[in-house]
Amino acid sequence: MKIHEYQAKEILRRYGVPVPSGEMATTIEEADKAAKQLFSEGNAVVVVKAQIHAGGRGKGGGVKLAKTIEDADAHSKAILGMQLVTHQTGPAGQKVQRLLIEQGSAIERELYLGLVLDRASGKVVFMASQHGGMDIEEVAHNTPDEIFKEYCDPGIGLQAYQARKLAFKLGLAKEQIGDAVKFMFGLYKAFIDTDSTLMEINPFITTKDGKLLALDCKINFDDNAMFRHKDLKELRDIAEEDPLEVEASKYALNYIKLDGSIACMVNGAGLAMATMDIIEYAGGKAANFLDVGGGANQEQIENAFGILLSDPNVKAIFINIFGGILRVDVLATAVVAAARKLNVTLPIILRLEGTNVEEGRQIIADSGLKVQIGATMKEAADLAVAAAKG
Ligand code: GDP
Ligand code: MN
After folding, report:
1. Domain co-membership, 246 together with 297
2. Are 221 and 153 found together in one domain?
3. For residue 83, what are the domain limits?
4. Are 296 and 342 within one domain?
5. What's the gap in Å between 376 CA and the centre of ligand 1?
6. Shortest CA distance to 349 belongs to which of 268, 287, 265, 284?
7. Membrane-spanning regions, if any (predicted)?
8. Ligand 2 center to 87 CA (angstroms)
């Protein structure tokens, strides 16, 4: 689960990590009030920042500095409601529905700090680089040696010597090392307490008066741990998510929208991946990843159909089921009922295997629905690709 920068900064603040003060605004009036407040507190510069679940906002025109209230208002008017395009949003961009109005900082250096769960080592890796403020993926690609890493043993956590080592590699002044270590410990504790999978401070800045600040912050939480974080769950902003994925999550369907034309309905994540692969192999493109789960019932199948059908790019539906826990006859009954109820007119291609497969095939044959059955996965994929091409 992703959250906004202003929410991430609120979390950092609770862990004693210094961040600029600011207010979130959803209207021009709120933005104006927040900017006036910051200027009246003696800030020479106020920053207007678009809040969307994507990075690269600065380059896309979603981060602007203002020295007067008039400038701040003009930036707020320009950014709020704009369709912000960054390298992470795709060409359609993302509509800006919230702003962060923040006190400006006098930047001396832009550095980078990041924590990520490294699956290969089974540890949290703490990363630091002197190349902050820019695309860290580019730094990782071109000059990987300039990203310093410390692996944290889960039993004992981040150690002071590791934080000091990273602080020295960032080239911080002697007087800043202690603050940097405290800063990193705050981040590490926040990361662990919130069950995060990613936390990035880019840029992590030093100011002209020698202070350290998190100028930007991105946090992703582990979805599988959200059941034990009711408070964090409330930070979800579904306006930032794909509407079909939001719908699917209501029915406990694992659905990811993709941009091909063949909708897939599959039970089991491994089979779903294999199905997408074989569609590609047959010359087509999957419209989605969908795992209806091992114990899917008729209602879930119906909901799954509904979601697949609301994607206008879909030209054919490929149902690939292995009847293990979910018996094939039960699935076939559900597919027939759902297809009738929703009046599905798109071609349906089935590949069925497993418990009660003969009964299942009979139910499909008796239904009178225009369904093609492939004997193997490859044959079914070929049928689906042909059907999608029309
Ligand atoms: P991102 O582009 O989505 O990663 O947004 P950031 O919050 O990282 O902001 C992008 C850039 O805007 C930063 O790298 C800074 O160079 C600049 N910026 C943001 N806030 C301030 C500020 O308070 N003062 C100054 N001088 N620059 C800022
Ligand atoms: Mn950034």
Report:
1. yes
2. yes
3. 21-104
4. yes
5. 54
6. 265
7. none
8. 13
pLDDT digits (tens, 9 = 90+) for 324-366: 878 889 888 988 988 888 888 899 999 999 999 999 999 999 9
Query: Are residues 167 and 246 both part of a single domain?
Result: no
200 flagged as catalytic:
yes
pTM of the predicted model, to two decimals?
0.85
Is 112 annotated in the active site? yes
Could you tell me the distance, in angstroms and rounded to a whole number, from the CA of residue 198 to the centre of ligand 1? 20
Same domain, 46 and 125: no
In a mutational test of the pocket of ligand 1, which residue from 107, 138, 201, 206 has the highest number of ligand atoms less than 8 Å from its CB? 107
* Candidate from 48, 51, 63 with most ligand 1 atoms within 8 A of CB, to mutate: 63
User: Which entry of 150, 200, 240, 302 is annotated as an active-site residue?
Assistant: 200
What phi and psi, each to the nearest 5 degrees, are found at residue 217? -150, 130
In this structure, the answer to whether residues 35 and 88 fall within a common structural domain is yes
Ligand 1 touching residue 46 (CB < 6 A):
no
Q: Residue 163 sits in a domain of what CATH number? A: 3.30.470.20
* Alpha-carbon gap, residue 44 to 50, rounded angstroms: 20
Total count of domains within the chain: 3
Residues 6+ apart with CB under 8 A from 310: 244, 247
Same-domain pairing of 187 and 319: no
For residue range 185-218, what is the model confidence (pLDDT) as tens digits?
Answer: 999 999 999 999 999 999 999 999 999 999 999 9
Answer whether 84 contacts ligand 1 (Cβ < 6 A): no
CA nearest to 50, candidates 216, 236, 220: 216
Of 221, 241, 261, the one marking the end of a domain is 241
Q: State the CB neighbour count (10 A cutoff) for residue 26.
A: 12
Do 207 and 331 lie in one domain? The reply is no
Ligand 1 atom closest to 60 (CA): 2
